[in-house]
Design goal:
Number of helices: 8
CATH architecture: 3-Layer(aba) Sandwich
Number of strands: 11
CATH class: Alpha Beta
Radius of gyration: 17 Å
Amino acid sequence: MKNHTSASRTPNLTSGTRSVNAARRGTSVARHAQRVTQPAMKTLALTALLATTALAAPKLTQKKVAYELDGAKYESVLVFDAKGANKPALLLVPNWLGITEANLKQAELVAARGYTVFVADVYGQSTRPTNMDEAGKMSTALKNDRATLRKRAAKALEVFLAQKDAKADFKKVGAIGFCFGGTTALELARSGAALNGVAVFHAGLATPTPADAKNFKGHVLAMQGADDPYVPAEERAAFEKEMREAKLDWQLVNYGNSVHSFTDVDAHMAGQADYNEQTAKRAYALMDSFFAEVFR
């Protein structure tokens, strides 16, 4: 039997919360959208974060990678150090806005920590959301069609693994995701994708097929805001049950004094979706520790 861990470290790691039903979530998400600043501001903030990180950040290359699935065109983005050694490979699924300049900056932040990152396009090249309302509708449509969501994520992973110039060590492959992207990364793992580990940030943990957790090939780390109104205690408990029944090596870490979007520098809706610099730093550091163990 594999080991499992549910972390609770007072005062920083406690329990999580989420909206009770889809209607309430829709209302809360709409309010969230009203208080999140423009993507350009997020880009500036993440640029500053990259500049001040204690890590020695290499000069990173962004390469657009086009491909097709079921007749539709997609364009994911490879973020890597073209002059460095091969690094562990991470498929990154961004938040519900998909591939934006701001989310590519966040991908650079992750890549600078010692990874080759592939930012997955799960919407399509010509059907990306342009605002929060569109993002809410498009992400909800995919959450209601998990088969399509899994298929698009799996295609992105397939294309990533085929990148011969990626400067990636494809013996060390993981997936990460933020918010809706975290939900997507977990669904990819539930589909049986060959991933050494999955780490998600303030993700929706619920799934219509919890028995599919038996298909996980690797380790699991979920990092949640203890006071996140979009991921309630009952959803966290259901995720724990799912992990236990599948006998996985899993960790669920709930950060105290933190709500949804704690890694999103432009989220400023107190009590609902709010950036927390301390929690973000702790979560990124935990991600590094998790993958260091998984990839050793």
